[in-house]
């Protein structure tokens, strides 16, 4: 969202705060200024650090995109960012140097942010040159508050910047000054050396001559399927006595009357259905003499040389359920609050506003987000914003009325009201946002989580983990940061619910809030294969098993971290694990295991050529689960026989059954194989225990 982007980039622009340590001989990166850039605009970046001038050649990459080096000294380097359509977001700065044939590298973790601007559409896209128009430009990935938007070289007046769109006013033009036909839409900023983005042929100027043309529509959007009943069209060249129909998308609207104000038409909006009209719909005026049904109206529009369409947008929601209010729906009036109000099923790509009771945010400060609104609620001597939370369209109609906000009595405490990104998956990168109030007023600077680390602490150390705040991570109503020990590594943190302790600048604890950080292991499923070498294999050692892992990884295109333990559990048998993926990605271990079996079955495959002695057989294949930090087993908990000690019991039971059935020989063989597999699992689990200790 633009607000998050602005907050992050505002701090990044000033550079990351690093303690300036004296340079020794190591190659180091400390800072980048500015620490963000558009992927479409070459930007000069200054990187500071230590020994940046060592070596004969050097390469700097920002999120993997090369930054062309210009000047370099021991503690400073300037480079110009490159363009890329494949990157965006926060990432690493990596510098590599070649010093007399020796490669050295340094990394500043998450030290740079790329913004990738995308312009998708404009509404309306066809306008009469004489009309002028308020145009909605749907665009994402912007940072600055104000932009210069031009249509075919004609500059528009900037009105507002929101997370997903810009609102600009295109002036009415003399007929001979507007560009003919399709025109480019360009977006720039006075602080940048080049345009941020240009979209070819996205907008069209037309001249309809003496025919009527629309200059505005109010409202410009509604929520289907039961929108506000009417809308007003403002038009020019309406002839006295003429009667009009309207094509609104696929709907032929005949219920059109003249408004009380000259040059206006009142239309009854149709009931929208998802298969017919959700999204932007063209609005075209048609004289009743031209057409009297949808088919003839469509033909009449197609026959026109120039047709200036307007647009009306139907949205799917919101329809029900209370809005989400951050930092909370009950807040004391003695604090400033950075409000975020979102509505389910509401895609906010349209001009709108929100009220908290009788309080209306300043339009200049109100930002429309992806699904709601962001604004400031200032502190006051008494409450002034209690009441229903209502959503309004751009004509002032109430579109949604639901939920209550309470501007409550003063509260001198610091409080946590909501937590976002909870639970967090151990081993997966992700930010945590904690909402509340009083953080700034009480001097909070450090936020740490108690008793998170899994290992026994060293002397003088503890098990607490400190949140590393993101850029602009501490604001009036929110704390956002990362718990790198838990999100970058799998084996450092415990799963569970952990309290957050807040400290001031001198390290004094000023508050403890229970159950803020919830950590858990991913429960996706991986695969375990039990494989075999041939009896005459020249090398069936652990070295051969390790070689199998490398070769199989290359042939399957599997990163090394996707392979778990590859262990020799018997002289000629070994076990391979394909670990489950993180987060919401669907595990592909099953398909990878099938491909691996195919390579094993094909004795002429590259796998057999590079791993001699591999027998073309897979003894079995089973699913495995993540049971803890780097702990993957067939079953988690008490059901898993971790030691394999029951293998002999299986043999004795089976011998008894076989003796009774008079097929002792075959049964003993079958049960012995089962015992071997059970023992193999026990050995493998002992190997896990060794690794985890």
Short description:
The protein is mainly beta and 693 residues long. Helix content is 15%, strand content 43%.
Can you offer a commentary on this structure?
The chain has seven domains: 2-115, Immunoglobulins (Immunoglobulin-like, Sandwich); 118-206, Immunoglobulins (Immunoglobulin-like, Sandwich); 213-315, Immunoglobulins (Immunoglobulin-like, Sandwich); 324-408, Sandwich (Immunoglobulin-like), CATH 2.60.40; 415-520, Sandwich (Immunoglobulin-like); 525-635, Alpha-Beta Plaits, CATH 3.30.70; 647-692. Helix content is 15%, strand content 43%. It is built from eight helices and 48 strands. The strands form ten sheets. Strands 1-3-6-5-4-7-8-2 form an eight-stranded mixed β-sheet. It is globular and about 100 Å long. The model is unreliable at 1-21, 639-656 and 658-693 (pLDDT under 50).
Overall shape? globular
Biggest sheet layout = 8 strands, mixed
Alpha-beta content class: mainly beta
CATH top level of the largest domain is: Mainly Beta
Distance between the termini: 43 Å
Range of helix content = 10-25%
Number of helices: 8
Strand order of the largest sheet: 1-3-6-5-4-7-8-2
**CATH superfamily (homologous) name of the largest domain:** Immunoglobulins
Number of domains: 7
Write the CATH architecture name of the largest domain: Sandwich
Residue fraction in strands: 35-45%
CATH topology descriptor of the largest domain:
Immunoglobulin-like
Which stretches are poorly predicted, pLDDT < 50 over at least 5 residues?
1-21, 639-656, 658-693
Number of strands: 48
Mean pLDDT, nearest integer? 80
**Gyration radius from CA atoms, angstroms:** 33 Å
